[in-house]
């Protein structure tokens, strides 16, 4: 994956004699639109920055000027020291106190190895490898990393790599975790290099609200189907089909937030879990519907006379009849107890109370267990990803 990174770089250096003659007085600047800059480029008097892992392009004007307040502030004891430079030759002491800045806005297109497996709780590292080519061994600059550098006149107050507050506000979705600028130890003799690293993490609230909490609630609504009688399988499946279509729509909408990936993300696995929950509820409803159908077929062959039925508690018979039992109760109230008993008692070899519990109470109990496990699984999932 490629990304564009825009940043301003300040190269603080002691200019060579070829550049020293063009260095303006304190408070003045030479920019890249002036004739003097063309001469500086012809003489190769200024350091030339490059990017190893991408393409570099300067945006706007570059500037070359003098500074006098470049210091190093060590965090342990807040001791202020001058920036270190290599010692000069004895005949070159006039450059000892001369410090210049070359600054410009850089846009680079770099290859980034983003890993979205944790999306939307993902974090990434932005890495830009800067280097200075050593074209001439007697005319070259060396990159040196000083993490405690401060230049008050250029608003460099927090070290050599700093993300300004106004820039952080414009990142919107991202939070800057850390910034680091380190010197490369494996550079070749033809160049000196530094690596700029920045770790960022995503603010997940938008995705959690729209693509996690909402589908999680919709999936949980599948358990509401237990309030529909088991024999009305059409109504139950109609509700569950609506939930599946809603989850599929949310899944397609969330996929637009990411590039095409060959692996699953945390969000896609959560959506899969939502679908699996609905499939389990569908299997549960079909199982209890088949049991109810079996009851209906068996009870159709049972005798309905009081003589064959035996005795049964009339209140239990009325309860079964009022709870949409698979068999229609007798039209006469007097025959309800005997009719229900005859159609249920010998159906599976159990008492009428057992069959009533299997068909009605167990249906609700299993659905409640499924719903409770879904709540438990969500708590574990959020704890693991936060």
From TrEMBL:
<dbReference type="InterPro" id="IPR036719">
    <property type="entry name" value="Neuro-gated_channel_TM_sf"/>
</dbReference>
<keyword id="KW-1133">Transmembrane helix</keyword>
<keyword id="KW-0812">Transmembrane</keyword>
<dbReference type="GO" id="GO:0016020">
    <property type="term" value="C:membrane"/>
</dbReference>
<dbReference type="GO" id="GO:0004888">
    <property type="term" value="F:transmembrane signaling receptor activity"/>
</dbReference>
<dbReference type="InterPro" id="IPR006201">
    <property type="entry name" value="Neur_channel"/>
</dbReference>
<protein>
    <recommendedName>
        <fullName>Neurotransmitter-gated ion-channel transmembrane domain-containing protein</fullName>
    </recommendedName>
</protein>
<feature type="transmembrane region" description="Helical">
    <location>
        <begin position="273"/>
        <end position="292"/>
    </location>
</feature>
<dbReference type="InterPro" id="IPR038050">
    <property type="entry name" value="Neuro_actylchol_rec"/>
</dbReference>
<keyword id="KW-0472">Membrane</keyword>
<dbReference type="Pfam" id="PF02932">
    <property type="entry name" value="Neur_chan_memb"/>
</dbReference>
<feature type="transmembrane region" description="Helical">
    <location>
        <begin position="356"/>
        <end position="376"/>
    </location>
</feature>
<dbReference type="InterPro" id="IPR006029">
    <property type="entry name" value="Neurotrans-gated_channel_TM"/>
</dbReference>
<dbReference type="GO" id="GO:0005216">
    <property type="term" value="F:monoatomic ion channel activity"/>
</dbReference>
<feature type="transmembrane region" description="Helical">
    <location>
        <begin position="206"/>
        <end position="227"/>
    </location>
</feature>
<feature type="domain" description="Neurotransmitter-gated ion-channel transmembrane">
    <location>
        <begin position="219"/>
        <end position="284"/>
    </location>
</feature>
